[in-house]
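Data card: per-record layout.
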Amino acid sequence: MSATETSALESSDYLAKRQLKKGTAGWVLLAGLGVSYVVSGDYSGWNFGLEQGGFGGLAIAAVVIAAMYFAMVLGMAEMSSALPAAGGGYTFARRALGPWGGFATGTAILIEYAIAPAAIATFIGAYVESLGLFGIHDGWWVYLAVYALFIGIHLSGAGEALKVMFVITAIALIGLAVFVVAAIAHFDLSNLTNIPATDAAGASAFLPHGYLGVWAAIPFAIWFFLAVEGVPLAAEETKDPEKNVPRGIVAAMSILLVTCALVLVLTTGAGGADAMQTSGNPLVEALGDSGAAKVVNYIGLAGLIASFFSIIYAYSRQLFALSRAGYLPRALSVTNSRKAPVLALIVPGVIGFALTFTGKGAMLLNMAVFGAAVSYVLMMISHIVLRRREPEMQRPYRTPGGTITTGFALVIASLAVVATFLVDSTAAICCLAVFAAFMAYFGLYSRHHLVANSPDEEFAALARAEADLG
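The structure for this 470-residue chain is written out next.
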């Protein structure tokens, strides 16, 4: 820590008020958490990429992004085995890049996780309205209900919340299985390329928006996997995190690769790329007026709820870790009698609810992807730095391919950041301004008030001590 950054030891009472429940999850529950974060992306949101690149552009983008995510997950599996703490990516970057890099990473993750539920809430509203549930036609009632209900469940404790999440996720996967079986009967190869070609460079039936359409489709391809990197945030609440966190995140990613391929090809082939590119509930519309469509519509709501529910968990743990270490106001990390961080759950929820009034799911999606892509860049840099600076660090799991693997993910993540400006420059610039405001707060205030005996700062102190001894 530099001379311009100061920290102090806090009392045992300070940390006692900021404790999470230990030993709640094993690797199966963590794999379920990883799938839960993402499964809504199979039901809605990804299809807006058809409008940017057509089926060909989105398919190419999805292959590239899937490879990036798999490489990134392998890198995060290593770092989570070496540094198991509730901060996840922030913890890794704090050790590798210092307080500035750690806070920058944590801020980017917070932007992603605070905005993603707002985007998902708008998709939930579309599904509720299409089902005619409760006679609701004005989305804000739906948004308020899901935020209030699921934040309330999280306040009851992590064990209860994760078990509810696991059940909802299982139902969502059953819904995808029903869709796959039904969609095969509706599949028509010509539907994949029924968007008329434009006059863009390289335009064709396969790439109706040309070569640039592939790049513009990247943020929507990311929606197939967005937030799977949040599995390490459960490290402090996991049994044997050095082994279970890597197992859980790799298992989750393996399942998501399969669901991505099936949903992309079958939805577009059954419903047609042209019709699906602006749909709020593409899987349902792809099946037309059928019994299977009604089943998928109801279960699709469960899929959206699963991701909404689990990302609330993720943003609360990220905010909890940053607050406990003094990077953000310390009141945000105080936990209740059930070991749930109260304000860390409520404050981002209020912000997310306010964002739902934009009603623009695609815009919110792009904003969430901006935060995610920035954090991916910083986390992959962290893996490379830790491999080179601390080769002797204990790593129960090691990334296959080492820094070559994470270097590949770094390059693609950097391109993804740029792609968010191609899709909606105003939304991306707004996120950049928020990011800059957080960094200004750190530079002017919080870097002088860090908590030296918080887990993440202790990891860093240990590294400095080992370096001094060496």
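Known properties of this structure: Residues 88 and 232 are 5 Å apart (CA to CA). The first strand starts at residue 7 and ends at 8.

See the next section for split statistics.
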